[in-house]
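Replying to the earlier thread about multi-chain prediction with a worked example.

Input:
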Amino acid sequence: MGDANMRAELVSPGRRLGTLARHLGVDYSPASSSLMASHNASEIVTPSPTAGSYDGSVFANVVQAPEDPILGVTVAYNKDPSPVKVNLGVGAYRTEDGKPLVLNVVRRAEQLLVNDPSRVKEYLPITGLADFNKLSAKLIFGADSPAIQENRVATVQCLSGTGSLRVGGEFLARHHHEHTIYIPQLTWGNHPKVFTLAGLSVKTYRYYDPTTRGLNFQGLLEDLNMAPCGAIVLLHACAHNPTGVDPTLDQWEQIRLLIRSKGLLPFFDSAYQGFASGNLEADAQSIRMFVADGGECLTAQSYAKNMGLYGERVGALSIVCKSADVAVRVESQLKLVIRPMYSNPPIHGASIVATILKDREMYHEWTIELKAMADRIIRMRQQLFDALRTRGTPGDWSHIIKQIGMFTFTGLNREQVTFMTKEYHIYMTSDGRISMAGLSSKTVPHLADAIHAAVARIK
Amino acid sequence: MASALALVALSAPFFRAVPLPENSMFQRIGAEKKHGNPLFKGKDFRRVSMTVSVNVSRFEGVTMAPPDPILGVSEAFRVDTNDLKLNLGVGAYRTEELQPYVLNVVKKAEKLMLERGENKEYLPIEGLAAFNKVTAELLFGADNSVIQEGRVATIQGLSGTGSLRLAAAFIQRYFPDAKALISSPTWGNHKNIFNDARVPWSEYRYYDPRTVGLDFDGMVADIKAAPDGSFVLLHGCAHNPTGIDPTPEQWEKIADVIQEKNHIPFFDVAYQGFASGSLDADAYSVRLFVKRGFELLVAQSYSKNLGLYAERIGAINVVCSSSDAGTRVKSQLKRLARPMYSNPPVHGARIVANVVGDPILFNEWKQEMELMAGRIKNVRQRLYENLSQKDKSGKDWSFVLKQIGMFSYTGLHKAQSDHMTDKWHIYMTKDGRISLAGLSLSKCEYLADAIIDSFHNVD
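Result:
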């Protein structure tokens, strides 16, 4: 998808030269190969982009990129003057009052850091804050994980989930023999772009079944079964984005067996540990199952949602390897990916995380605040489901309470969504995804009305 | 068992055979039973474990990467137990007591931010608007026509490295035939950045070892010989690693040849205010090119001048011929940032916005910056005096005074630099570069002795 966009917008050198030549009044025939084929700078007259004093810009061939579809929802929401507008677009947690939330424990950690006179702002190592890395690995794999005990995990601090995925992807493109990554159909819109720019080729495996609004498990198994040995498989650890549809533990086990027997390489995206069910261990089960069988995998971890550290860009990439020796070498190569990208990662968010994770009392306070966020979202699911049932809205809406995490894939179509935005000022992505975190008890009735009307008026 | 063997056979070309301990798989099973993992039935797991354990790591072929040449110096310094040791490796400012330094204005800004209790929501892809505004104004001057006319596309980036990388990715996408020209020598990471972004590069002569100064004729000749429309990477001030900057007259001539060849100037500004102590003086070269009407790129960093090393805060600025071009360029830079890290970290950006955007803090900053730059000038002076007094050979050491910024090219070659470390426990990079920020007045004499000894007695 990202690839197609790129190709469409890249003007071929021939066309670019032709345009410039016209501006300069130079005779240029596209059929003439001399301009293109010759590499000798002194032979050819290369009409350079800055040549001529016309309205010429070096950037003449740079077209306006489309607005990011997800972030564009908030842009539209902000413009709407209606007092009843609701933003169910971007995936950031909101309180009952519709406000962003900074966790108390995060504020406390920040106080400690800012008021510590011994604290400095020296460059972190390329791999990031060492404490943060160790604690992050323990959080996701479990403190008693054999992989950790045996030093088989290479963990590097990265810029939240996106950065971890990108660094992991670049590493695989350089060091893994198979450059195809299978991503679920559907998945987070940024996934294909991240992996394509990392140098991997992106294929999809069936995932979401619109007829059941659940998992197309047969399709998933069939598609992964066709994947070549060594192919990388992107798996959402929990709370699949955008559908909220997760495999059951039994299904995870079958997926694991298939992946291991086919020699595929799992790459987990863990953006919601603790945020999905309210329980940190439960939300890491899928990953831990894979690590427990002794095999290798990659994990991209984000603290954006579960610690509310969105803008601080805190995350970690872990690569679980067969041996400690391999892990050491892998880490050294990860550094070569990171150094020319941003040299070393930002300290602030990682320090907050490390402060919380290493302090027993603060860790405990975090788990309580985390559960409160998860519980509120689960309550919103129940309330919305009940409200639709009360209104007698036609259709089976049980997927609202079956799906997990911040998002619900309503099953509403594009026209219905447009209707809801126009008539009810509900802002959501056109694929029918709503962010439950953006709902409150006060706004649930309004949303239910909107859905009810949309389903009634538009098929 | 057969399937496992088939798996090994299939994957034979890709895995180097590594003999595994005979009982490895049983060890793993034993461990599993000990943990009592309820998710697995013993029989199934045993089969899977066998399938997995005959495989070698997918990453077995990954070789150990060499340590980073610059960052590796600090590591070596750390483990040296000699009392006289001196770290003149990495470019981070040190006080006269050789301690890291967090600027007072930064501490004040962080306290303010804490008191305000700001949220941690995602920044837009292009970063904090207030940060982008003050950053462009700082660089070009608030009353500069490019700012007034809205012709600058500014995107917050991950310090200098991240900003350079975004620009390089942009060049690769929109100028796929274009080359980057970098000085010989230049900061070691420049090459890595262009390599990873797949932008071809070549070098222009810069350092003249005979004069320990600028090879100006060579520089101009090489820029002239390059294909039209190349991107010329220029250090705005305080060239890294040499400390040698062109004079204003030389800058004009460099601009002439760039114009003649329709090259695009690409400035790396990592030391604005830090080099001379004056923000405006250090922006001279950039502002000259802007005045002459070039479209150009500037990668900016606040690591040194605001001491925000670990916060990773900088920007990429693109000066365009029209505000429309600027808008389009900005949109495409965003499209490159999104699959790299989605949006940049908020903390450092807020610090900068608070300091640079507040008249009182801004003035305080200027004073602190003058102190930092002043200290470096003082050690240069002292080092020069010590060298001149103690070296009886009559060698001209005045280049120490003529060079500017944090770094100095001593003119020592690799063997001599190694001698500095082996005999004198002075840590520096092998190219003869020393970081004056890591030098105190009290150690100048010792350093002078070491340099004189290495220069004269090592071939």
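Chain B touches chain A through 105 residues (CB under 8 Å).

Feel free to reuse this layout for your own posts.
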